Amino acid sequence: MKALCEIPTQEVLAGRAVGHRLKLAPLLLGLLAANSVVIVHAQSLTDPGFETYAVDSGGFVKPTTGPWSFFNDAGVVEPFAPNSSTGPGNTWSATFAPIEGQQYASTYAGLDSIRQSVLFGAAGQYRVSAYAAAPSGSVTIPPAGTFTLGDGQFNFTLGNVPIGSPYTIAPGTDWSLFTADFTIPAPGNYEIGIRNNTTSPYFINYDAFEIKPVPEPRVWQLVLAVGAPLVAWQAFRKIKGTLA
Ligand SMILES: [Ca+2]
Ligand SMILES: [Ca+2]
Fold this sequence. Notes:
Helix content: 25-40%
Strand content: 35-45%
Bound molecules: calcium ion
Number of strands: 15
Strand order of the largest sheet: 1-3-6-15-8-13
């Protein structure tokens, strides 16, 4: 009889609600943890903004060690430096403030590429992105001469093969974000990067590379994983409330 007559106080109801939440808490935490592990283990670039290389302010280095491989004129700069050269294959520019950190990559004209081996834990669709910018003016390359800078062109690459659309950048273009989508057929290591396509005189600077799954399934998994039990719990509360 007591159970039928008793009207639960607000404190009792609040206590029950907390109790239900606590019962769900380990499940929710477990789901969050499981998804966090997946996120932590997602493919990622090492030093995506070229900050680990030692280079003086206004200077230029062509690293032979570290996570990235640099070819032809490609190297790392720390602003600010005008369009500069000590000879063919040693030509650089650092006229822009970095997008990220203190440094970025510099390339001059054709034959240049920058790439890094990346471990992909799962097959699927991915998107690589980077910021690119191109200075204007001219460059004097001893003893070749002085050249007026024109349009530059680059591609993102997978295993040094172009992926996505070629991008043309006019001289005097400030940082813009560029992307290319690609497919990873099986888990493993794949070389990701960029390469300059055309041989006419131009600089392209690169900073803040990133790789993401397309779409980002883990975020959706997380929303669904947390959302479904919450919806179920709310439905359970509603039914319980109706029966009571
Ligand atoms: Ca940087
Ligand atoms: Ca070059």
